[in-house]
Amino acid sequence: DGGITQSPKYLFRKEGQNVTLSCEQNLNHDAMYWYRQDPGQGLRLIYYSQIVNDFQKGDIAEGYSVSREKKESFPLTVTSAQKNPTAFYLCATWDPAGGFNQPQHFGDGTRLSIL
Amino acid sequence: GDSVTQMEGPVTLSEEAFLTINCTYTATGYPSLFWYVQYPGEGLQLLLKATKADDKGSNKGFEATYRKETTSFHLEKGSVQVSDSAVYFCAPRPHAGGTSYGKLTFGQGTILTVHP
Measuring CA to CA, which residue among A57, A61, A94, A92 is closest to residue A78? Predict the structure, then answer.
């Protein structure tokens, strides 16, 4: 989606290092989500945020942290506690004002690998 | 809890063949139903959706009908092209707030490869 920018496209992490993935949106959507995608698997929800200054754990939050200080931004930090971080990370947004019939919109993803 | 079962892949077809990718789900109430497509190295794009029973979503020659009685939302295309090669995800969303806030439940995805 042109309205969601994820950066960087590729990221490498060293052992014991925290890394932060960026997600910026100009769609003016309140809700934002982070998913993890492993080969041959569906998307698993890491964290989501309904509104600024609020966020909730998803199904696989351990080893990850987020913040939501601005409506446009929802960065994801992969901490050293996440022992298997190699995956494709996708950020998504949703406009609750449009109702449950409206889809989530996705960025182009960040591929994280271990050095 | 909510779940999705998608037809296992990979699916390999020749150009102009007929495509069906099965999707069945369990969800609270009557969810909205979405199909997303993911091209190599990219994020997910909405392919089509249906929001109530017997609705038919369609886009780019793809169709899927919301079958409440069988809780299914199978994706079909009459004549596939090489450019349709991608991963397809079925994703229901229950109409509920609270802890389900806007969340989608994704199937494991079905890899489609179309040969010339």
Answer: A61
Which class for A30: exposed (0-12), middle (13-18), buried (19 or more C-beta within 10 A)? middle
Q: What is the pLDDT of residue B77?
A: 98
Q: How far apart are CA B99 and CA B28, in angstroms?
A: 13
Sheet of strand B110-115, all strands in order from the earlier edge strand to the far edge: B11-14, B110-115, B86-93, B32-38, B44-50
CB pair distance less than 8 Å for B49 and A42: no
Q: Tell me the residue type at A109.
A: G
Those residues of chain A whose CB sits closer than 8 Å to some CB in chain B are 1, 4, 6, 31, 33, 40-45, 48, 50, 56, 58, 90, 92, 94, 96, 100-101, 103-109
User: What band does A106 get if pLDDT is binned at 50, 70 and 90?
Assistant: very high
Identify from B55, B73, B99, B103 which residue to disrupt to test chain A contact, counting A C-beta atoms within 10 A and taking the largest count.
B103
pLDDT tens figures, B12-52: 999 999 999 999 998 777 789 999 999 988 999 999 999 98
Q: What is the mean pLDDT of residues B48-63?
A: 95
Average pLDDT of the segment spanning A7-21: 93
Q: Is the pLDDT of residue A51 over 70?
A: yes
Q: Flag if A90 and B32 touch (Cβ within 8 Å).
A: no
CB distance A49 to A57 below 8 Å: no
Return the residue of A nearest to B40 by Cα. Answer: A108
Query: Is the minimum CB–CB distance between B8 and chain A shorter than 8 Å?
Result: no
Q: Which amino acid is at A27?
A: L
